[in-house]
Specification:
Helices cover 86% and strands 0% of the residues. By secondary structure, it is mainly α. The chain folds into two domains: 73 residues, no CATH class; 118 residues. The model has no long low-confidence stretch (mean pLDDT 78).
Amino acid sequence: MRHFKAVHLYIAGTILMVLATITGRIIQEDLARLGAQGFLESGNPINAKPILFVGLAILSIVIIMFIHKVLGVSHSPAYFGAGGVSIMVLIAISIWYWGKYRAQLSPVSRKAVDLQAVGYLFFALAAWNLCGVGGPPGFALYPEKMLVLEPKFFAVAQLKVVMAFFVIAWVFTALGFKAATKSAQKANSQID
């Protein structure tokens, strides 16, 4: 049990570090320009980012610590099925709004949004391919079937695909944010 709590604490800490890094990156320019006191007094909506960060960090820790207590630890095809369908619907909704948002942007800004969309597409592909590891044909959630059918080769190959998709997703997400930063800097320099 102590190991179980240590793992959850480690995961929560890692999520906290990632969120802190993202938040820091978002507010870095304003902090450098305004200073800490000026940043707090600026009334800029970005001031809510630290509050959002703390809220997301707490939410992620709560989810990690208590999801198994709320939903149980036994296998639940209905849970995973509902999650999979929800992901598909949310992907479709996201693509719809992405298209509407993209249509309103300048050509320079579209490049950033397009790169980010490719990153999100690969995140979706990674999530989709995880289903084949836990359920058929990988059967990772069914150890008795794994022993009989021996699909380890598939599960390993599929997880390698998922890892590749995650890496590609992060590459395009980072490139998208880099392009967005350049676009914003260009727009700001034209205003000044």
